[in-house]
Amino acid sequence: MLSPRDRVFLATFTTLLVALVCTVHALIYMDRLPSRVPSHFDGSGNPNSWSSKGTVLGVYMATVWGLVVIFLVVGWLITITPMEYVNLPNKEYWLATPLRRTETYTYLFTVFQIWGASTNAFMLFVFQLMFSAAINGEALSNLFWFGFAVYMLATAAFSISLALRFRRLPADAQPVAAASLRSGQKQQLLI
Fold this sequence. Notes:
This is DUF1648 domain-containing protein. The chain crosses the membrane at residues 57-83, 104-131, 143-164. This protein has helices spanning 4-30, 53-80, 91-94, 98-136, 143-167, and strands at residues 36-41, 47-52. The protein is mainly alpha-helical and 191 residues long. It has one domain (4-167). It has a two-stranded antiparallel ribbon. Helix 1 runs antiparallel to helix 2, helix 2 (53-80) runs antiparallel to helix 4 (98-136) and helix 4 runs antiparallel to helix 5 (143-167).
């Protein structure tokens, strides 16, 4: 099993790797795209607004790297949030000891980074469909709705698994008094 530090590194690496793949994707298409690119589509996939190639690529990169910053910063903020502000089922158990607290915060950071990488993978998918529509002069592929449904199902599964993981206590869990999580108690993370 990987150590908490290794899991945090791997999650961060994954988030950055997907963003780098998006960047390479944008660079590959920079010379292939026409000067005006469809940037908005109606429900049937027909373009109804166009932007310059530079604007579309700029929005793509700003979105991807903005999401990286948001997911990494929020993931990090999760690990330094004082315990009294953490809203987690059975937090008295999950945050009771430094080891459990480290495992809990590592899990939250890791899953949050996976969600961020998945979001950027969805961005890659959407922009690829958009680029194909621009180059071929066609409507946006109906694959968009399939990809959107997959992303939304993955987001729902992420949310449900997160709630279920912390709602259930291990069979050998000892009850922990809420007083053990005193306000202002210094957090010790073992990362």
